[in-house]
Amino acid sequence: MNRNTRFCKKVLMLLIGFGLMQSAIAVENKSKEDIITIVQQDDMVITGKVLSDTQDPLPGVNVFIRALNLGNSTNWDGYFTLDQVPIGTHTVEISYLGFDTFTKIIEVTGSTNMINLGDIVLTPSTNELGEVLVTGSAEGQQRAYNLQRTSDNIKTVVSADLVNRFPDINVGEAMQRVSGVTIDRDNGEGAVVKIRGTPQNFTTVSINGEQIPSTDESGGRSESLDLISADQLAAMEISKAITPDMDGDAVGGAINLITPTARSSKARFKGSIGGGYNDLFERGSQIYKLKYDQRFAEDKFGVLFGASYYNTVNGEERYEASYRNRRIGDSDDPNSFTADVIDDFRLRPKENERQRIGVNITFDYKFSPTSKIVLKGIYNDLRDESLRRRTRFRPRNNYQDPSNPNLAGSIDNGDVRVRRDINDRVIDRENITLNFEGEHGLGNFGKIDYGFNYTRSERILRSDRFVFRKSGLILDVNRDNRDFPVFSSPDFDFENYEEYEFNSFQQDKPILNRGDNLVTRLNFTVPFTLGNNFGEIKIGGKYRDLDNLRRRNTVEYSGFNGPYNLSQVLDGNSGSILDGNYEMGQFPDPNRALQHFLDNIDAYELDENATKLNSDSFFYDASENVTATFIQGKIDFNKLRVLAGVRYEKTDVTYDAFRLDVPANDNEQITSNLIQGNNDYDFFLPMLHLKYKINDQSNIRGAITRSYARPNLQDLVPAENINFADQELRTGNPDLKPSDVLNLDLLYENYFESVGVISGGIFYKDISDFIFLDVTDVDAGEFAGFRRFSPVNGDEATLFGAEINFSRQLDFLPGVLSGLGIYANYTHVQSESSFSFINDDTGETETRDDVDFAGQADNVWNVALSYDLGKFSSRVSLNYNSSALFAPSTDPNLDRFIDERYQLDANASYKLNDHLTIFAEFVNLLDDPTVIYQSNRSQVIDYEIYGWSSRFGLNFNF
């Protein structure tokens, strides 16, 4: 196969690169003694703290004793430690991009086991004209680039300063700027993150190094990142090649959200006051942010407090459709035929008021340069109050005239319906994270670090949904415009509201998704020497206890004893949607409809079967226990750093759920039985990382790692979720296996003295037992006519991709052009997958080959043009995702795709003085729709737009 041949050639390139690096090791150690020494009693430890000229700690500073080939880098607080420094005179070199190199000669006499160099202040570099190369808001991202440059593995580090330079309100929005990242949206905001063409559950999301449990209603493992406001972060780390001391269930990448600690001995206050506007709903918004930090007791004790409040209006104008292959006409009619027709069509605009509250507080105490403890607390709350109006046209399997295949139903056929309903819904999502960690130096014996973490994520949904229905009519479907099908009826006026009879009232009180995660970890790091080369061995373990609960308390009333139609509770005309293509008419007023229920509660007929079905089929209670241990070694051979090790993880899952027994007779009672089950698996995960330092600005990196992806907990539960209204059946699969993945990475990177980087690399992933949601139409049995959704394991998949990244201030240009800057990245991914299935008609096993991997977009890119000069700063950014296979099926006619999409954003700010800055931001200026289609572009099953929005206000800093 040509594609496989290309893959093999590209993998061979990676292996050749690794081989060249290994040859370099052999050459450099040709004359060295291969004797490992763990510790020498006379060796010393050198510590210190590196600061900028503004007294801010500098992370990622390279600290090096060249004659000994001994080096390290500073942490986020600017501290460094050099172990195993022998007695004698040594020259310490301290280098940092954007600053002049600092050198200091030290004398190690052996009279003490630690030498503290104290605070070391670096001087900013200047060009030929004496202008400072790195200034203002660029300093934060320069720190991030230095951490990225000195890291052991392939990662992207994005500082809070860079995040704030784009109009990104939450972490999901900020993540779309990173190379290889695509996002799914909720109410127009970035929410779910996917990395390097892999699905959501292939990426882990952590806060301060520990994963946060998800409250995703569909059972996904990664928490939606719209919950967390971007202003709470110090930085985002996206590791695209994991190391043995990291959780092993990251295939696409591991996202670590780092919250800040206090950095200044002087009290600092910063924040924002602002407002905004949403074009789609013509409503305003409010923004308030505040952060305080200060260090006390000679900088040993730090306190940081931050809080933010956003009240925004967002939402969507949207329709959903379902296409089925139906027979047009009677089966005994020789002129009848089968075709893909609209089975169900739902117009559903939603207006949403979103309140986001974020609070973070940090206390830390530094006993010495090598010993500290940190306590961090983070709280996020996202409250969505939405009103969703919906008109639903349901032709179903009622296209009866082969001469007019767009006509469905008859006066005598009650199965063809039009419904109008309103859903008044409140969703509260919150996350609480408490993290306590410590790190203590043990002199030449190394160090110990530990941590205790507790996280609770919770999603509570309450809603009232009132449905009115007109049955027994004829529907005419006009599909001339592929994006906007139009329904009409020759015998019914859709705005004759007296004809819509009460159908049902469903009340969720409430739906609960809750995840509790308790983690404890302990690691030891021990230095050693191999000949004249310095290294360290790190061993450790972790235990994680995750509990995930999903519970639904829903009641449904499906009848009313007396006359009751839509005209009695109308809300008024809601206008048109989707650029005027659809007139919505009027809907139930939720307050009037609820009052009608309260006033006439005895006349409403409780549907006990629907109530039990909605509640019990949704329930599960799962527990997942993970035990992990690892060992890794790191050693420097002159310019080459080698990190190798292995991680072992064992997972035990237990769950409770209900299995439903649905009788064929509607008059019989639905029953349910509690079922219990378990699933366990383990993995050995070997990993190798190579980093060759060409010079202080440039590195070549390579990695061979093994990782895996866990099944979603919901997918393991063998329960059935039955939706009679939508004719959908969702089933679990207790036999699901985790995905086993081999990852290969090769990267070149070069950093500029002025803020910026250029990098390029390739990656390859070989995936066994990947999981996808299979979609099939049920042809026989009690659920004939339903569409079944079931998670299954595929056979194998491969992904090969290339990434390039360029970011640079164009300060070498003359005059006012020197304020220009470019931020751009591009990722291209090719993939193929295969999966086997049983053909229901023949009973034979069949295989689909050469299918794109689910969710993988061939091309993803970002480009931003900035202008920063003097007090003025501005930026225009464009994001692009090409079309992708959204969800494959064993039947190619049911494959679902997501269309390409562009997003254009812009922002500007002006610094009034040293303390005040005004800003303006504009988001989604193109208002490009999100489009999902089935099989081909003429069968759109989801079309939504969000409108553009703006924010403006005042930033302050004291």
UniProtKB/TrEMBL annotation:
It comes from the Bacteria. Its main location: membrane. Keywords: Cell outer membrane, Membrane, Receptor, Signal, TonB box, Transmembrane, Transmembrane beta strand, Transport. InterPro entries: Beta-barrel_TonB (IPR000531), Beta-barrel_TonB_sf (IPR036942), CarboxyPept-like_regulatory (IPR008969), Plug_dom (IPR012910), Plug_dom_sf (IPR037066), TonB-dep_rcpt-like (IPR039426), TonB_rcpt_bac (IPR010104). Residues 392-413 are annotated as: Disordered. Residues 150-254 form the TonB-dependent receptor plug domain. One of its GO terms (cellular component) is cell outer membrane. Residues 396-925 form the TonB-dependent receptor-like beta-barrel domain. It is a multi-pass membrane protein. Residues 397-407 have a biased composition (Polar residues). Residues 1-26 form the signal peptide. Pfam families: CarbopepD_reg_2 (PF13715), Plug (PF07715), TonB_dep_Rec_b-barrel (PF00593). It is found in: Cell outer membrane. Belongs to the TonB-dependent receptor family. This is TonB-dependent receptor.
